[in-house]
Amino acid sequence: MQDRGGTKALYERVKAQIRARIDSGEWPPQTRVPSENEIVALFGVSRMTAHRALHELASEGVLLRVRGRGSFVAPQRHRVGTMGVRNIADDIRARGGVHRAELVLAQEEVCGPDLADALERALGLAVFHTVVVHYEDEVPIQLEDRFVNPDMAPDYLSQDFTAQTPNAYLSRVAPLSRSEQSIEAVAPQPWECRLLAIGRGDPCLLVRRRTWSAGRAVTAVRLLHPGTRFRLESSA
Predict the structure, then answer these.
(1) 145, 224 in Cβ contact below 8 A?
(2) Cross-strand pairs, 212
(3) 130 - beta bridge partners?
(4) CA-CA distance, 73 to 122, in Å (whole number)?
(5) 125: which residues sit within 8 A by CB, 6+ positions away?
(6) Nearest CA to 82 among 218, 209, 222?
(7) Does CATH place domain 78-233 in 3.40.30.10?
(8) What is the DSSP string of 116-178?
(9) pTM (two decimals)
(10) Nearest-5° angle of CA 187, CA 162, CA 194?
(11) How far, in Å, are 17, 71, 143 from residue 98 at the CA level?
(12) What is the model's pLDDT at position 102?
């Protein structure tokens, strides 16, 4: 496949070749596909053509690109319910996957104005802050950035959140009585890209959620999902 003119046809032909190998089962889900350099050698095309083919397949949800690891055949896009407050570890196990959590941050902070409003606390009082990355089969799929009212979970920071999720712990010590949430498409921040192993231009889905127990605010959390790895859905 010579890279002489007709660049559009060339990258489309490369995409078709990759799709054919996926559709035939030669490259099943989670299989690492050739890198840009390997595609150049395999198909005899330019680096630009290889890059465009992989980039478009990732944008279409056919491939999953993980920074520092390469491109992989995407599994079926994970469905995340938007109704209720679910434990991500339970959802992953229900799909037959393996859940792992990495605790990035766990500390006490002081309420600023926005956080004081969100947690219904006085300005300047303490709050607990954790950041956790959730993995499914060693692929990062959710960044959890959570603030917790210490009055409702005083032992929160002493928990091992690699063994149990913050959701599971809080569900026990401060049973949910009410929740509210919003969903939006966002561009990830640089530190979020690093933790989720995604590119700066990769779209993300952000769930903002607040919860209450017995009429008192418990938590305000941001749940960030790489857009190519998830589909949010709800039913009534």
Answers:
(1) yes
(2) 178, 217
(3) 106, 146
(4) 49
(5) 110, 111, 116
(6) 209
(7) no
(8) HHHHT--TT-EEEEEEEEEEETTEEEEEEEEEE-TTT-TTGGGS-TTTS-HHHHHHHHS---E
(9) 0.70
(10) 25
(11) 31, 20, 16
(12) 97
Per-residue confidence band for 4, with pLDDT thresholds at 50, 70 and 90: very low
The mean per-residue pLDDT over the stretch 21-26 comes to 88
> What span, in angstroms and rounded, lies between the C-alpha atoms of 54 and 71?
8
Asked if residue 236 has pLDDT above 80, the reply is no
Positions of CATH 3.40.1410.10 in the chain: 78-233
Of 72-81, 118-127, 192-201, least confident by mean pLDDT is 72-81
Contacting residues for 22 by C-beta, under 8 A, at least 6 apart? 28, 62, 73
User: 7-73: what CATH class?
Assistant: mainly alpha
Q: How far apart are the first and last CA of the chain?
A: 51
